[in-house]
Amino acid sequence: MGMSPTPPARRLRLGLPRRMFSQVLLMQVAIAAGVAVLATGLFLAPLGDQLDDQAMRRALAIAQTTAQQPRLAEDLRSTPPTPSGPVQREAERIRRATGAEYVVVMDRRGVRWSHTDPRQIGGVVSTDPSRALSGREVMAIDDGTLGRTARGKVPLRDSTGTIVGAVSVGIAYDSVRARLIHAIPELLAYAGGALAVGALAAWLVSRRVQRQTRDLAFSDIAALLAEREAMLHGIREGVVALDRAGRIRLLNDEAQRLLELGDEALGRSPDEALGGGRTADVLAGRVTGTDLLMVRGQRVLVANRMPTGDGGAVATLRDRTELEQLGRELDSTRGLIDALRAQDHEHANRMHTLLGLLELELYDDAAEFVGEVVGDHRATAEQITEKIQDPLLAALLVGKATVAAERGVALRVSDRTRLPDLLIDSRGLVTIVGNLVDNALDAAAGTPHARVEVELRAEGRTAILRVRDTGPGIPVDRRELVFTEGWSTKTPPAHRRRGLGLSLVRRLAERQGGSVTAGEAHGGGAEFTVVLPEALTEPDPVPVPTVPPAARAVTEEESR
């Protein structure tokens, strides 16, 4: 039987733990330990130098005191170097009194007159005494017969000031090291206490970070951030995040496109970034509700705002411009269908009338009847196109006249209407006229002697539009409110919301530097006035016919 292969042993993988709590705690403890060790080292290094300096200065002070003894220089000159001589006795007395390692008195040749070891008396010193014998004081750390010592050397002078020798005092370096070593446990105790406090603080901070990050690893947080960025900038819905102070802190790509803003809006309030208005009110939370309608430029937006736990808020924006356009087209299509249905019914009645006239062989009456029917439609179209030379506006009003007739409303073009084919933005004016006429037809429908009058005229390069109706009119306190986005007195249809037409009219007018106002028409009803400066181009100059020279000569000849 074959033996199954033994699975390979798993290799131990050393490294940082994955959880943020463990990583932060480990890093902070390591930092605290490193700071403690560094602080201890930075403290001990100058401490050793200070102790060495103190020892050398102490040795120098003892040497200076010894050299100032009144009989020492005389005894050096008058007695031989012996262990029982006066110089040895005085030096030993001073050594025992000061606690020095040695006190050596030497003559100018460097021969010892005193030493801790009596056998060294009479011998030459082991270190160079020339600097002290030349009159200078010396401090140093030297290695001599007694080991490593902190030394101080001074010249020895007699009563006349003549240098007769030198005094060398040493303090064992081991005594300095012992002081340093003695201080280390206390220093380590302080360092350990600081490390313990740092570890406790690190643990508390790590616990707080753990709660706030839900114990995720750094790699998980980085992945979540990358996913968040990809999601925010990839979705086809605008996202605007505001902090607790109401300043914009995030705009994804779609929000920048819908609001026509850039990165310069970050850190600013909605009023500063958008210049006020309903959009700024919705983002700032001054207007509350769900699926709030806004108009930004030529876009119709739906906004929802939700507060966040940190006191800020997140607003989402959806573009409903195309949906609104489709809804308006659907309304127009329904109106045209109703008009066509009514025209079909009227056409059938007229055909029956015409058929009856033909069966009765009243041919002249039949021809006159057809002429009247065709002439009415032709007269309406000719009347409009004669006064309004822009083809888009003329076609719009011809179509609106047909719809108005089927709704029982007389659509009339004022006698003052004169508009040349010089419009810069005819499509924008078509939108304005279409919205105002639709509102006027809705207001006038069902009223006695229902009528809508349209006046379009040019004054220089300024286009002036007035739309009057015989409806119930608009109260004075609501004449500004009617231009607010989302406000309407009519019940909205199922496929879309109302309250955008007049708001869009005002936005289009203001975009061209114009204005729109609501007032009361003569005889009752509402009157809307739109003024669009610089809406028309300058007319081409009429060329003046010139007379050729030959023709001019013939004319002059004939005049004679």
Automatic annotation (TrEMBL):
It is found in: Cell membrane. Residues 66-91, 537-560 are annotated as: Disordered. One of its GO terms (molecular function) is kinase activity. The chain crosses the membrane at residues 20-48, 187-205. It is a multi-pass membrane protein. Signal peptide: none annotated. CDD domains: HATPase_DpiB-CitA-like (cd16915). Its EC number is 2.7.13.3. InterPro entries: HATPase_C_sf (IPR036890), HATPase_dom (IPR003594), His_kinase_dom (IPR005467), PAS_fold (IPR013767), sCache_3 (IPR033463), Sensor-like_sf (IPR029151), Sig_transdc_His_kin-like_C (IPR004358), Sig_transdc_His_kin_SpoOB (IPR016120). Its main location: membrane. It catalyses: ATP + protein L-histidine = ADP + protein N-phospho-L-histidine. This is histidine kinase. The lineage of its organism: Bacteria, Bacillati, Actinomycetota, Actinomycetes, Kitasatosporales.
